[in-house]
Design a protein that fits this description.
The complex is a heterodimer of chains A (579) and B (219). Chain A has 579 residues and is α/β, with parallel strands linked by helices. Chain A has three domains: 4-242, P-loop containing nucleotide triphosphate hydrolases (Rossmann fold, 3-Layer(aba) Sandwich); 243-275, no CATH class; 283-366 and 440-502 and 560-577, P-loop containing nucleotide triphosphate hydrolases (Rossmann fold). Chain A contains 21 helices and 20 strands. In chain A, strands 6-7-8-3-9-10 form a six-stranded mixed beta sheet, with helices on both faces. A six-stranded mixed beta sheet of chain A has the order 16-17-18-13-19-20, sandwiched between helices. In chain A, α3 crosses α4 (117-130) and α3 (102-112) runs parallel beside α5. Chain A starts with a strand and ends with a helix. Residues 278-286 and 536-579 of chain A have low confidence and may be disordered. With 219 residues, chain B is mostly helical. Chain B folds into two domains: 1-96 and 195-219, no CATH class; 99-188, no CATH class. Chain B is 77% helix and 0% strand. Chain B has helices spanning 5-21, 25-41, 45-69, 72-95, 98-107, 112-141, 156-180, 198-218. The two termini of chain B are 36 Å apart. The chains are: A alpha/beta (579), B mainly alpha (219). At the A-B interface, α3, α4, α11, β16 and α12 of A face α6 and α7 of B.
């Protein structure tokens, strides 16, 4: 008998007519590591909520078919009776941490189980060790970083010692380092005999660890196989983010399924010619006019320096990615670009406005800022009004521009709908259109790929590549950053630690470690390929850049370049591109 | 050894009543000073100053209102009452984890779901405050005027609608997460013990007597 048995299940929420799960059948044995993938709305989150009885007990709705855990129907027992069987970690860490300290957070579920005090202490200690949160036990969960909160959420569920640990998009908000950490935790958990089920878009993070890949489409299982076999199918139509290395293999007509760079090299793979965009700065993108000029910019928040001595010039038409850990100052820098935050030290000039004195309203028409969470801005009754409101507020409404935006973002059929009724991906498109409606010269994006499925992400990449505006994008999705940006600025502890082409930044192992970054598979594959311009005796770093000398813009050099540029009256970017 | 959360709650409520019934500035000043002394003595002074920043606008509005409608004296009394009572609440929650208060109330027969609403509301507040901040930034970034002036009044929905919608979503997600960790379990145990000891009864008796005497003397 399988540990989890889902037999011909159909389910719809009380408020919806449509079946979210539509004839799904799935069996999971004890000890498996299952990755659930599929486009947004394919039913992944709903499936997870079946496992611990939240559906039907908490949600209600109509459930047809059988869900048995350990041979018992979930509908026969209340949710709290499933605690020792299935633990579910939700997507939003903030909404599942409700205690005043991490220790109490872990204790809560154990008290629900009615355990004696000694057992509770033992389990808190065990779970906090497994999830690497022992030093955080006395801290308030809401004061922790996103990565730490995610680990606390995992530990709080883990302490209940469930036979199945299920996680809903746990990697979504994590930076590369935190993602690596979580991946290691899940490996440990599984090695101790727990069954792991992860619903996720970022497949490359843990496919190598998984025993099985289940792809959902329209509420049913479309593909169910080992990750390697599943990846031999054409997954793009199912809205799955196919890992880069597998995509490369396909492009080269290779039928293997490399899950790591080493495997790709062993298969004799190279980066396909059409994918070698990164690192080659097009001269047309060169500095024509400076759009952003930061001079010794510093910003303090509650007495702590969030930005320190930032010297950056960004030229018209550049697409720049800000990379670094969560909390490294990326969002704070972005908010300076339209004066939502003001320099505590130094200066920042954006499109000729000195942000120490400029009003947000003045910059709003020239700088379009798209925040990570589109729900922060939706308030109008229709999508049309929502897209138009920004442009109308700053007196730059133009019907022709609106029409082209509706077309570009596929909003035409949604215009009279309520923005609140849209999917998260659609809301994001509304937010983009809204930011562009006032025809800004500078477009600023904060983590645009978070929670996006493959079709939305691909659409975003091709759209950004076609833009003429200057773009600054903060992201922890380095593959995306490599796809869209010709220049990376790496931040660590509020300081610029590298500024150059993606290849130049990734070539410096020291900088990458300092900024908590991992080279993308594409870069690693190129660098480790013999005779590659990036390769040096088989090591990924350090390597020379295309300038042939020392890497331009790398730590210290960025500042120096800026300094020399000021001395000679030329912008640093130009300096970086000569040679 | 510290007092039981219920005793601390009783003392807090007594203090609030006394403050509300105190008619004169000098005694109110003394009462406020008493709380501030406690805050300083236990090392919460900096946190208290940060907390005061959050209520300064409210205090200013209250002052202006009393000043225009009544008198300078009334305005001073109103602001001091506010200051003394919110500082006392601040002090109380520095000394008492919300869970301890909730669990102790459950021990006294308050239904668990009710006590838990109290606890989570406290945790909910800072998340909501951060969200309000994000919404404020997002709207101003696209040119929607949200300055503290009359012209911005018509744009209040731009601030409130996203905030309310997200507050409901958050509340729903929190309820779901609670359920998934056994909120409804009838077998709940408590790691901490909540027992009223002799010192609790002594403190409660002293508090009630002192409050009664102060109120009688003042009136």
């Amino acid at each position: 008998m399988a540990l989890i048995e889902i037999a011909s299940v159909r389910y719809r929420y009380p408020t919806d007519e449509a079946w979210v799960l539509d004839g799904i059948s799935l069996q999971v044995e004890a000890g498996e590591y299952v990755v659930l993938a599929g486009a947004s709305g394919s039913g992944k989150s709903t499936l997870l909520r079946l496992l611990n009885g939240l559906i039907p007990h908490f949600y209600g709705g109509e459930l047809v078919g059988g869900v048995r855990i350990g041979g018992i129907e979930t509908r026969e027992q209340p949710v709290h009776n499933w605690l020792p069987y299935v633990g579910l970690v939700f997507q939003n860490p903030e909404a599942q941490l409700f205690a005043s300290s991490v220790e109490r957070e872990l204790t809560f579920g154990l008290e629900s189980l009615g355990l004696p005090r000694d057992e509770i202490h033992a389990r808190v200690n065990w779970a906090s060790e497994v999830a690497h949160i022992t030093p955080l036990l006395k801290r308030a969960p809401l004061m922790l970083s996103g990565g730490e909160q995610q680990r606390v959420a995992v530990a709080a569920v883990l302490a209940l010692r469930p036979r199945v640990l299920a996680l809903d998009e746990p990697f979504t908000n994590l930076d590369p380092e935190a993602a690596q950490d979580l991946r290691a935790i899940l490996r440990t958990v599984r090695s101790e005999g727990t069954t792991v089920i992860v619903a996720e878009h970022r497949l490359a993070e843990m496919l190598a660890d998984a025993t099985r890949l289940v792809i959902l489409a329209e509420g049913a299982v479309a593909i169910d196989d080992t990750p390697r076999s599943a990846l031999t199918h054409d997954l793009a139509p199912l809205g799955v983010n196919v890992p880069t290395l597998v995509r490369f293999a396909r492009a080269m007509g290779n039928h293997g399924v490399p899950l790591s760079v080493d495997e790709a090299l062993a298969m004799g793979m190279r980066v396909p010619a059409k994918e070698t965009r990164s690192g080659t700065l097009t001269p047309a993108m060169g500095m024509r006019r400076r759009v952003v000029e930061a001079r010794a910019l510093g910003h303090d928040l509650d007495g702590t320096a969030v930005l320190r001595d930032v010297n950056v010039d960004i030229g018209h038409g550049e697409v720049v990615a800000l990379v670094g850990r969560n909390g490294s100052g990326k969002t704070t820098f972005l908010k300076h670009l339209n004066a939502l935050r003001r320099p505590s030290r130094g200066s920042l000039v954006v499109l000729g406005y000195d942000t120490r004195h400029a009003r947000v309203a003045d910059l709003a028409s020239r700088v379009g800022l798209v925040f990570q969470n589109p729900n922060d801005q939706l308030f109008k009754l229709t999508v049309r009004e929502e897209v138009e409101i920004g442009a109308r507020s700053v007196g730059r409404y133009d019907l022709g521009v609106m029409e082209s935006l509706y077309e570009a973002f596929g909003l035409r059929l949604l215009l009279e709908r309520s923005p609140f009724r849209l999917s998260e991906g659609q809301k994001k498109r509304v937010a983009f259109a809204s930011a562009l409606a006032a025809r800004p010269e500078l477009l600023v994006l904060d983590e645009p790929t978070v929670g996006q499925d493959a079709p939305s992400r691909d659409a975003l990449v091709s759209w950004l590549r076609g833009l003429e505006q200057t773009v600054v994008v903060a992201t922890h999705d380095l593959e995306f950053a490599q796809d869209v940006a010709t220049r990376w600025i790496a931040l660590a502890d509020g300081m610029v630690v590298a500024d150059g082409t993606p290849d130049a930044v990734m070539s410096d192992a020291g900088v990458m470690a300092r900024a908590g970054l991992k080279p993308t598979p594409r870069f690693a594959l190129t660098a480790l390929t013999p005779n590659s311009p990036l390769a040096t005796s088989g090591q990924a770093s350090p390597v020379k850049t295309e300038e042939g000398g020392s890497p331009a813009h790398l730590p210290g050099i960025a500042g120096e370049a800026n300094h020399q540029a000021r001395e000679h009256g030329t912008p640093a970017g130009e300096w970086g591109r000569k040679g | 050894m510290s007092l039981d959360p219920r005793t601390k709650l009783l003392l807090l409520l007594l203090f609030a009543v006394v403050v509300m019934l105190t008619p004169g500035l000098p005694i109110l000043g003394a009462e406020t000073a008493l709380v501030v002394l406690g805050i300083v003595a236990l090392g919460f002074f900096r946190a208290w100053l940060r907390f005061l920043r959050a209520i300064i606008v409210l205090a200013a509005i209250l002052f202006a209102f009393y000043f225009w409608t009544l008198s300078l004296d009334a305005a001073g009394i109103g602001v001091l009452r506010l200051l003394a009572s919110v500082s006392a609440f601040f002090f109380f929650f520095q000394l008492t984890a919300p869970e301890d208060l909730g669990n102790a109330l459950v021990k006294s027969g308050v239904p668990y779901p009710f006590a838990f609403v109290l606890i989570t509301a406290m945790q909910f507040a800072p998340v909501l405050a951060r969200q309000a901040h994000d919404v404020f930034d997002a709207q101003r970034a696209r040119g929607i005027r949200l300055e503290p002036d009359v012209a911005s009044v018509r744009n209040i929905p731009a601030l409130l609608a996203p905030l309310l919608v997200q507050a409901f979503t958050l509340a729903e997600q929190m309820a779901e997460a609670l359920e998934a960790r056994g909120f409804g379990s009838p077998h709940r145990t408590f790691v901490r013990e909540y027992r009223l000891r002799a010192m609790d009864f002594a403190a409660a008796l002293a508090g009630v007597t002192a409050s009664a005497m102060i109120i009688l003397l003042m009136h």
